[in-house]
Amino acid sequence: MTTFADQPLEEQIAQWRAYVRRRQTIHGPDVEELEGHLRDQLVALTETGLTGDEAFLVAVKRMGSLDALSREFARAHSERLWKQLVIAPDATDESPNTSRAETLVVLILAVAAALAVKVPTLFGLRLNPNEELPPFYARNASLFVFPLLTVYFVWKRGSDVVRSLWLWLALPLAAGAVFANVFPFPKGSNTEVLTILHLPIALWIAVGFAYVRGRWFDDGGRMNFARFSGELAIYYVLIALGGGVLTGFTFMMFAAIGMNPDWFVAGWLIPCGAAGAVIIGSWLVEAKQSVIENMAPVLTRLFTPLFTVLLLAFLATMAWTGSPINVKRQVLIGFDLLLAVVVGLVLYAASARDPQAPPDFFDGLQLLLVVSALVVDGVALAAIAARISEFGFTPNRVAALGENLILLVNLAWTAWLYARFLRHWGSFAALERWQLAYLPVYSIWAALVVVVFPPLFGYR
Amino acid sequence: MDVSKDLVAASATPLVLAILAEGDSYGYAIIKRVAELSGGHLQWTDGMLYPVLHRLERQGYVAAKWAASENGRRRKYYRITKEGRAHLAAQQEQWRTVDGTLRGIWMQACTI
């Protein structure tokens, strides 16, 4: 007997199977073996007169706790936990062919991204170690990679879903290409630097759109994309560290035989590696989702208390000494970054949290972090406002101020929702929803900075 | 009377090997055979058999292959290997020693 006529029972089995599959140490064929066992057991139990439901309960109970079971599987197959960290899942995965095809697609896309960086060279824009980086490269940095990353997700998610969406994906990227290059920026222009910094943020949402198959509001898609972004950042840093070591050895070894590898490192290794690493990093995040998934939350747990201590110490010192914040340009950006870090900590703490769980100590700590960040930023904001009223508007100040306000609004409402949650007046899900609903705001503001600021401030 | 967890775990390997020595078998049938042989006193958590089987497979004491079962589903059948039989013999020797020692002292206790 292959299947049960009892439809609800089949559904229960399917649920159980999905549940077991999520265990990293229990692989595809093991699940099949266990399911076979479950089915044999169910047949025997229903034959003794139990109903489908009863039989299912008994059979699952006899199977034992899945935690203990996956621990035993991990012990019997200790290599599994490690193997998942290295190259593609082995043949025991459900679809070995697609994973092999994926490896190929990813390699092709990564090479394409690396070569895309070299295309401008054909038009005379050379990367020369002895000269300054042509601003063209900085302005278009995201455009070398993001289209290929989008192609990867379109390929991965199934083209049928995305066929109707290609306009939504191509349009922002094309618009980004136009606005990065049409404006006549003079040398050393501030608005050009703003474009360089903001274009990737504005376009990242187009990548996100491809990532969630265009269903921005469906089944936790946005949260998955937020997680993906965080994990990609971690992977990228790891790959960059490895790249640094590679670069160091390149210099050392060729210098040893009297060659200068400058032209290769600056013209090929670093730019091509940086572009290809985005694709490779994304693929690693996708492939190893279940393994490294916990990296961002772990870092969050580690640094939330430390940042809270830092902020409180800063406030206490300022209150004690009475020294005002000395507003310089870096300070503006510094406080923006601080708020961004705090928002990131909140977001990644939320991503790892079970929304149903009751408030605990860590939630209180999060609220303390958010509130102290708000106070610190309030002080900084007052100083910045004073400086603007004294010296007038510049593109940098307006951009920094705008970002500060956006993050401030986010954190203020977050603090309110956290407080409600801690007092059992509201649910954690509301907080999560708020953070996710806010994601497009960053991109929209970044797009504004790219599109409106240069003409508004006369490209200075 | 239920046998303690440690004893169940310790006896799992010889028991599984001995059942496979009777003939090729698969997970569910092995569990049923254990229950039958022990009169229900050896309570195994069903799932736990599989890690044991997989460990024995890695150690080379049993070999496994997927084959169609009578119900049409794929099923993983296990067969004891030569090394498995040798290991079973060694285990039997050890268990006999333990059993004999315990018997000896319990007999003495009875005769005093």
Number of strands of chain A: 0
Could you give the distance between the termini of chain A? 77 Å
Oligomer: heterodimer
Largest interface (CB within 8 Å) is between: A-B, 24 and 22 residues
Helix- and strand-based class of chain A? mainly alpha
SSE run of chain B? HEHHEEH
How much helix is in the residues of chain B? 55-70%
Globular, elongated, flat, extended or rod-shaped: what is the shape of chain B? elongated
Instruction: From the alpha carbons, calculate the radius of gyration of chain A and give it in angstroms.
Output: 26 Å
Total helical segments of chain B: 4
Task: Give the topology.
The complex is a heterodimer of chains A (460) and B (112).
Chain A: H1 7-21, H2 28-47, H3 52-63, H4 66-76, H5 79-83, H6 96-122, H7 135-139, H8 141-157, H9 159-163, H10 166-181, H11 190-211, H12 221-256, H13 262-287, H14 289-292, H15 295-321, H16 329-352, H17 361-391, H18 395-422, H19 428-451, H20 453-456
Helix pairs in contact in A: 1-2, 2-3, 6-8, 6-13, 8-10, 8-11, 8-13, 10-11, 11-19, 12-13, 15-16, 15-17, 16-17, 16-18, 17-18, 18-19
Chain B: H1 5-22, E1 25-26, H2 27-38, H3 49-59, E2 62-68, E3 74-80, H4 82-111
Antiparallel strand pairs in B: 1-3, 2-3
Helix pairs in contact in B: 1-4
